[in-house]
Write a structure and sequence with these properties.
With 262 residues, the protein is an all-alpha fold. It has one domain (2-261). The chain has twelve helices and no strands. The chain has helices spanning 2-23, 26-47, 59-88, 91-96, 104-131, 138-167, 170-176, 180-185, 198-205, 208-220, 232-235, 237-261. 40% of the residues are buried.
C-alpha cells in the first residue's frame, strides 16, 4: 500500500508537469480544441451533403458518434508523441535517476491525457449540438455513452505510452501519426460497412472504432444502429468496447512498464 500511494503521488506530480508544459505551448491547446469543431464542419456539412443514412435520418446525427470515436482514438498518437519526445530528449533517463516510482511515468502520461481529452470532448459536444445533433435516450444512457469513451480512451493512452517508449524518437513518432487515419476511416464511423468488400468489411466490423461508434449510436438513440446478421462486436457493441478496453490494458500496461525499465 505504501508503494501504491508513492506511485500515485508521483503520478499526480507528473500529471501536473504535463499541464505546466501545455501552459508554455498554447498553440497545442488551441489546435487540440479546434480539431473537434473542424471535424464536425468538414464531415458534417461537406461530406454529409452527399451521403445518405441507412433507414433514413439526419447524417449529422449519424456522424457524431463516429467523430466522438475519432477524438477518443486520438489518444494513441497524442501520448505516443509526448512519450517519444521525453525519451529522445533524455527526460526518461532523468526520471530513472530520481527517487520516484517507475510506474508513475506512464500513470502520469495516461492520467494527463484523460484530463486533456475532456475539454476536446466538450468542444465536440458543443459543436455537435450547434450542428443539430441530439442524444435522445435520456441522461443515464448519455452518461453511459461518454463513460465508454473515457474507458476506451484510457486504455488507448497506455498503447500510446508503449508505442512512444518503443519508438523513443519524436521525429519517428510524428511520422507515424498519419498511420492512425486508416484505423478510424476503415470503420462504420462515416459510412455503413455493408457496402465494403468482404475482407475490408471484416476489418471494419472488428475495428474497436466501429464498436465504440455502434455503442454510442445505440446509447444516444442516433440513426444508423445496425441490424440483421452482424459481426459480434456490432451485435453487442457495449460489451465489445469493454472487452477491447480490458484487452488493451492487459497487453499494453505490462509492455509499457517493461519498456520503461529497459
Amino acid at each position: 500500500m505504501i508503494r501504491l500511494r508513492w506511485a500515485l503521488a508521483d503520478g499526480v506530480t507528473l500529471v501536473g508537469r504535463e499541464f505546466a508544459r501545455l501552459r508554455h505551448d498554447p498553440g497545442e491547446i488551441v489546435a487540440a480544441l479546434l480539431f473537434p469543431a473542424v471535424m464536425v464542419v468538414l464531415f458534417g456539412y461537406v461530406f454529409g451533403s452527399a451521403i445518405g443514412v441507412p433507414g433514413g435520418g439526419d447524417y449529422r446525427e449519424y456522424l457524431m458518434p463516429g467523430l466522438f470515436a475519432m477524438v477518443t482514438f486520438s489518444s494513441v498518437t497524442g501520448v505516443m508523441t509526448r512519450t517519444a519526445a521525453d525519451a529522445s530528449r533524455g527526460v526518461m533517463d532523468r526520471f530513472r535517476s530520481m527517487p520516484m516510482a517507475r510506474s508513475a511515468v506512464p500513470f502520469g502520461q495516461t492520467g494527463a491525457d484523460l484530463l486533456i481529452g475532456l475539454p476536446m470532448l466538450a468542444v465536440m459536444v458543443v459543436a455537435g449540438l450547434l450542428a443539430g445533433w441530439r442524444p435522445h435516450l435520456g441522461p443515464v444512457a448519455t452518461a453511459q455513452a461518454f463513460l465508454l469513451m473515457v474507458v476506451l480512451r484510457y486504455a488507448l493512452s497506455w498503447v500510446g505510452v508503449y508505442a512512444g517508449l518503443a519508438v523513443r524518437d519524436d521525429r519517428v513518432a510524428d511520422a507515424l501519426v498519419p498511420l492512425s487515419l486508416p484505423v478510424t476511416m476503415v470503420s462504420n464511423a462515416f459510412v455503413p460497412t455493408g457496402g465494403m468488400p468482404g475482407w475490408l468489411r471484416f476489418l471494419a466490423d472488428w475495428n474497436p472504432v466501429s464498436a465504440l461508434t455502434a455503442a454510442t449510436r445505440e446509447l444516444f438513440g442516433n440513426p444508423g444502429v445496425p441490424a440483421g446478421d452482424l459481426a459480434w462486436p456490432l451485435a453487442h457493441p457495449v460489451a465489445a468496447v469493454l472487452l477491447w478496453s480490458a484487452a488493451l490494458l492487459a497487453v499494453s500496461v505490462p509492455l509499457a512498464l517493461r519498456a520503461l525499465s529497459l
